[in-house]
Design brief:
mainly alpha; disordered C terminus; 3 domains; Serine Threonine Protein Phosphatase 5, Tetratricopeptide repeat
Length: 404
């Protein structure tokens, strides 16, 4: 029975040794040295098993001999494996700082290209970037850097557009990166070529690729303002001489200077211009917001202002901060436009209901706590009649001296 147990234990130990050997062999950086140590260790382990252990069992002098054999074998094994066991124990702690034995994730490096660009060597920078992109195709950082050098340093806008189009047509390109690339292309068309039409085409591609998204809404908003941006850029590029008319002489001697004050655009004309803008660009939230304010401040039409703001609030793809801003603005207009406390309170509660897990809901709760004070601040203070006091008190003589 004891012989069978010895055989079983021997098989288990042999299996563990083989498994340990295989794991160590797979992860070893010096496999030939590992094999040499195992070849030396094999007879020492046999010496332990067939000499030291039986001598221990015999007892007496034989046990002392077995102890000596075990000490000699242990000394040799310590020399062979001390470094390996030290690494095995220290490696988990050291890997927290040096990353362990896992190889670093390969990634492109563009520092050389950036340095060449700064030294005014754009062609060499382009070659360096293309070498990296050959190893890492469609890398966003490299693509944008290459397009930037082509557009801004080489003044080759068509090549930059081809570079970005190649990336945007990649089926695995992240939507935000595609939108950023097309937006940058639109900026280059405006800045470098003063071409609002090509810029609008680039932005419209965002709307086509990602319809009914917040990215598309931002692109539509930019398209709505391209005309004004183009005019500013053209004016800055082709400056015309400005003729300043002669000023009015002897302003201080005039009976009135009211006619010298420049006329302001009437609220009606402003509202008409915003309405026309919204007919062409319905997604221009800036124009719609300004139109709502004019409706209340100048025409006392809270109902029309509510329609304009609710149209933006009801759009599902707007950012939550923008929606909260419009709800707060609606509450402001309701307070100043004649609505009651309950109406404004319900508007602010919509922020809490729609965005309970965001910080803007805490801001809305704080405003709700002080909402009655906002209404109270609008109440007119009754005029107070001042008393009638004796005139010229300071000009009267002293009561001690009779000035007559």
């Amino acid at each position: 029975m004891s012989r069978a147990l010895d055989i079983i234990s021997l098989v288990i130990c042999a299996g563990g040794v083989v498994a340990l050997f295989w794991i160590a062999f797979e992860h070893s950086a010096n496999r030939s040295g590992l094999i040499l140590r195992w070849l030396i260790s094999a007879p020492i382990l046999a010496l332990f098993w067939f000499v030291a252990i039986p001598e221990f069992k015999n007892g007496g002098i034989d046990a002392l001999f077995g102890l000596g054999v075990a000490c000699f074998g242990g000394f040799v094994m310590a020399i062979l494996w001390a470094g390996s066991f030290t690494d095995l124990l220290a490696k988990p702690l050291a890997s927290l700082y040096d990353g362990g034995t896992e190889p670093p994730v390969p990634k492109p490096y563009y520092s050389v290209a950036v340095a060449k660009r700064k030294r005014n060597k754009p062609l060499e920078a382009v070659i360096t970037i293309r070498e990296q992109l050959a190893k890492f195709p469609n890398d966003y950082e490299g693509t944008m850097l290459l397009a930037s050098i082509q557009a801004e340093d080489l003044m080759d806008l068509s090549s930059a557009e081809m570079t970005l189009n190649h990336f945007c047509e990649w089926d695995k390109a992240p939507p935000k990166q595609v939108a950023a690339a097309l937006t940058q292309m639109a900026d280059w068309h405006l800045k470098l070529a003063q071409d609002a039409h090509s810029a609008a085409v680039a932005l419209e591609r965002i709307v086509e690729k990602f319809p009914e998204t917040d990215i598309a809404l931002v692109a539509k908003q930019r398209i709505a303002h391209l005309g004004g941006v183009e005019k500013i850029l053209l004016d800055a590029h082709d400056r015309q001489p400005v003729f300043v008319p002669e000023g009015v002489k002897n302003v201080g001697l005039l009976e009135s200077s009211a006619h010298l004050v420049p006329t302001e655009i009437s609220p009606g004309e402003l509202a008409a211009s915003y309405v026309k803008q919204l007919e062409q660009h319905p997604n221009d939230t800036e124009a719609r917001e300004k139109l709502a304010i004019i409706y209340v401040r100048h025409f006392k039409r809270l109902d029309l202002a509510t329609i304009e703001l609710e149209q933006m609030i009801g759009e599902p793809n707007h950012h939550y901060k923008r929606v909260a801003h419009w709800l707060n603005l609606l509450a402001d207009l309701q307070i100043h436009g004649g609505a009651d406390y309950e109406t404004a309170r319900a508007t602010l509660e919509r922020i809490i209901e729609r965005f309970p897990d965001f910080g803007i809901s805490d801001i809305a709760r704080n405003r709700l706590a002080h909402l009655k004070l906002e209404f109270k601040a609008l109440e007119t203070t009754p005029e107070k009649t001042m008393g009638v006091y004796e005139q010229n008190v300071g000009l009267k003589g002293s009561r001690y001296y009779d000035v007559r």
